[in-house]
Specification:
By secondary structure, this protein is α/β, with parallel strands linked by helices. It has two domains: 6-128 and 316-333, Rossmann fold; 129-312 and 342-360, Dihydrodipicolinate Reductase, domain 2, CATH 3.30.360. The chain has helices at 17-26, 40-49, 61-64, 82-91, 106-119, 133-143, 168-171, 180-196, 315-328, 336-355, and strands at 6-11, 30-36, 56-58, 72-75, 95-98, 123-125, 150-158, 206-214, 223-224, 231-232, 243-250, 255-261, 272-276, 279-282, 285-288, 298-299, 359-360. Strand 9 and strand 10 (231-232) form a beta hairpin.
């Protein structure tokens, strides 16, 4: 008996949605049956760009969820809409792909978790770098004891996000973006958790957070375009600090340092440093007890997370993984429950800025 393809509704028609559409088109077990967004012109443009015909097109998620044959909903809307979108999809009994950040408050995350648990749907959160080839290689090296017991992890999200990004108008505002660590630095938080965990498909958990914030762009109308190298003035300013630095204690005994830096004048970078009692990993370079007589760094020729371009990110691997989870009836290692912990670290930092004191987790 041939199993029918799972029908996919992509909700949101912005920058990242094209990668979701493409990944599901390329998976033999899925087909895109509908696209929805707040603007019908955006829906039609996304469908045309993907060569999709005879699909449902909606300017309302409520209407789209009633489309016949929808099994999976990909939530690609701006972050301040994610909670209500996820809750609606869960209550409709749909499996859900959730773009990050997942929510703008701990209360929103609690409501999302409750809706998903009540309905039993499967979820995956787009911490897509977990499927990056370098990330996969590092995770394998950690699991195979290449660096021994990890005692320190450092990850940094360094990108001068500005008006060149189509999602910037929502992201720059404190009311809808909240802060740099939440908007995009959460990728670095998730990476630190992922690498600190010694098991192949499990991230470490954080027990305590302390944080500082600073930088220069908050309130400034001057911005830099990292693609053209040009400066401009007069744009609405970023409403929060562009630099956040967090110190973490993991349940494994390791400590970590994670930063989100929107104020750096440089191309995008995602530095990774992992220190263990038997070796060290710096990006794609390894020093390990497994290489007797090593006199220089072993460099791994692989794909690095070295651009903010969504076309470079391994969405295909993420969606293939999620489809396998649905078909096998198992949870993803990157499901909503796991992602809530990554996000609560960012919210703990916000609390720390107000109190000046360390914050114990969990708080959600």
């Amino acid at each position: 008996m041939v199993q029918r393809q799972l029908g996919v509704l992509v909700h949101g028609a912005g920058w990242v949605s094209g990668e979701h559409v493409r990944a599901f088109q390329n998976n033999p077990h899925t087909r895109v049956v509908a696209i929805s967004s707040r603007k019908m012109e955006s829906v039609k443009r996304r469908a045309a760009e993907a060569g999709l015909q005879n699909i449902g097109m909606y300017a309302s998620l409520d209407q789209a969820l009633k489309h016949d044959g929808v099994d999976i909903v990909s939530v690609c809307t701006p972050q301040h809409l994610h909670a209500e979108n996820v809750i609606a999809a869960a209550e409709a009994g749909k499996h859900i792909v959730i773009e990050k950040p997942i929510a703008n408050s701990p209360d929103e995350m609690r409501a999302m978790r409750e809706a998903v648990r009540q309905t039993g749907v499967k979820t995956v959160v787009s911490f897509v770098l977990r499927w990056n080839p370098l990330f996969q290689t590092i995770k394998s090296l950690v699991a195979e004891d290449a660096v021994g017991r990890i005692f320190c992890v450092e990850t940094d999200y360094q990108s001068n996000i500005a008006g060149w990004w189509s999602g910037w108008e929502d992201a720059r505002k404190k009311s809808t973006g909240v802060g740099a660590m939440l908007v995009a630095g959460c990728h670095a938080l998730d990476a630190a958790r992922w690498f600190a965990g010694p098991e192949r498909e499990k991230a470490a958990r954080v027990t305590e957070v302390f944080a500082w914030r600073g930088g220069w762009r908050k309130g400034s109308s001057r911005e830099w375009n990292c693609y053209t190298g040009a400066w401009s003035d007069g744009r609405p300013p970023m409403e929060y600090d562009g630099l956040e630095i967090l110190m973490l204690k993991f349940d494994t005994g390791a400590i970590g340092k994670v930063s989100a830096n929107f104020d750096c004048i440089m191309p995008y970078a995602f530095p990774i440093e992992i220190f263990g009692d038997k070796g060290t990993i710096k990006n794609n370079r390894v020093w390990s007890h497994k290489f007797p007589g090593q006199k220089g760094w072993v460099e791994i020729p692989t794909i690095l997370p070295d651009t903010a371009e969504v076309t470079h990110h391994p969405f295909q691997a993420q969606m293939d993984h999620f489809v396998e989870c649905i078909l096998a009836g198992r949870e993803s290692h990157c499901n909503l429950d796991d992602a809530i912990h990554t996000h609560e670290i960012a919210f703990a930092a916000l609390q720390c800025y107000e109190t000046g004191r360390p914050v114990a987790l969990p708080m959600v």
